[in-house]
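Researcher: I've got a protein sequence and the SMILES for S-adenosylmethionine. Could you write out the 3D structure of the bound complex as structure tokens? I'd like something to compare against our soaking experiments later this week.
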Amino acid sequence: MKPPRSHGRQSVRPTLKPRELMQDTPTYADVWQARVITLFPDLFPGVLGASLTGKALQAGTWQLHTHDLRAHGIGKHLNVDDTPAGGGAGMVMRADVVGPAIEAAQAHAHGRWPILYMSPRGRRFDQGMARDLASCAGVTLLCGRFEGVDERVIEHYAITEVSLGDFVMTGGELAAQAMIDATVRLLPGVLGNAESAVEESHSNGLLEHPQYTRPPIWQDRDIPPVLMSGNHQEIAKWRQMESERLTRERRPDLWQAQKK
Ligand SMILES: C[S@@+](CC[C@H](N)C(=O)[O-])C[C@H]1O[C@@H](n2cnc3c(N)ncnc32)[C@H](O)[C@@H]1O
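Model: Sure. Here is the predicted complex with S-adenosylmethionine in place.
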């Protein structure tokens, strides 16, 4: 077994269960943190506990904390929601429940630390936002359920609403994990090959060129000969052209933005 790698601050603990990756560890000012406010803390780390983000979590390159909304629930039944003012379907998350949860999360905040509400009404998340989040000290992500959160909370804490896309999910947890994943892989030391964040789709406003690997022939299909030529200049040229072609064909909006 390889000896644990040290990042100068804490050693890597051998652990197999995803939730153990989130065990309370000392909080260091220079470690990027995500604080997630949710009714379902057991859904975390979820996909973030696997692969590169999971390894980086275990190595202490970033930290993940959940804040259980139920802990701030009201009354004997710890209610977190109530019927919408003005009537209508569904339930709304109470301001006097969500507010204290935000206060608890923000007690750990320092430096530039936005509060994001996962919301289909929000600005669509993109690579630029992931880059910006990666340059913050941390982020607090509020996951809604039911019909969402009392508007006064959003106004009071100047929360930014961010959407994963133009569709409606049951809760914000999947959106939070997607946004954290996209951000964490941009933190220094998370991706094995520093090149891969530079060349991939959306990093330079273009979609990535097609990728191939062994076997050289599969189902009578060859790998484009230029990729087997060993001529790195020609390979780079081909990749750039393919990148541009795919962007033009699939995402005219990105292609137009490129030309400005
Ligand atoms: C059923 S949705 C509420 C939708 C809300 N009533 C509306 O029409 O805008 C419950 C929660 O799921 C999350 N959610 C749903 N779709 C989302 C999306 N596209 N992006 C981010 N979060 C989303 C939000 O946190 C939201 O509060």
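Model: The two ends are 53 Å apart (CA to CA). The domain at 200-259 is CATH 1.10.1270.20 (Trp Operon Repressor; Chain A).
Researcher: Great, I'll pass this along to the crystallography team.
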